[in-house]
Write a structure and sequence with these properties.
The chain is mostly helical and about 150 residues long. It contains seven helices and two strands; from the N terminus they run ααααββααα.
Length: about 150
């Protein structure tokens, strides 16, 4: 394990499509988060992200712009250096889905098991989820998650 690892919230994997994320966007979010070393927002360069996830800097720029338009991340300009990336909008989305799942009475992972104790069991927070929850606790964002219209 000398190369490290990145904890990915199950809620992100479970609700990626509901948020409107493509698999590329999801991988870029995970890659950005893999550069988080402290409680500060991560600030990887496009070159570093490119090496981490295998996309060209141009593809990464388009993907990050798309994530901003979907209100999933915020790009914070830092003069003379790489941007930092605020993931608190994503945390807001995940909190929204966590509250929805809890109010609906359990895990909505698509499991077909009928065991009542399995359905009511809640997965404990990972260290990163716990850190996000405490760092961004009660932080209000200006935009609520948009509702998807069914065509």
């Amino acid at each position: 394990m000398g190369y490290g690892f990145t904890a990915v919230p199950n809620l992100l994997l479970r609700h990626r499509r509901a948020i409107g994320l493509t698999s590329t966007e999801c991988l870029v979010i995970i890659a950005i988060d893999s550069f988080r070393w402290t409680s500060q927002d991560p600030w990887p360069s496009l070159e570093a992200l490119s090496k981490r996830c295998g996309y060209s800097p141009r593809t990464l720029t388009r993907t990050i712009t798309s994530l901003e338009e979907k209100n999933v991340i915020r790009r914070v300009k830092r003069p003379g250096t790489s941007n930092s990336y605020d993931l608190s909008p994503l945390i807001y989305w995940l909190d929204h889905f966590a509250e929805t799942e809890l109010s609906d009475g359990g895990d909505k992972s698509g499991s077909t098991r009928t065991d009542k104790t399995y359905q009511k069991r809640r997965t404990p927070l990972s260290p990163k989820e716990y850190s996000y929850k405490n760092i961004h606790k009660r932080k209000k964002l200006s935009q609520t998650p948009p509702t998807k219209s069914v065509a």
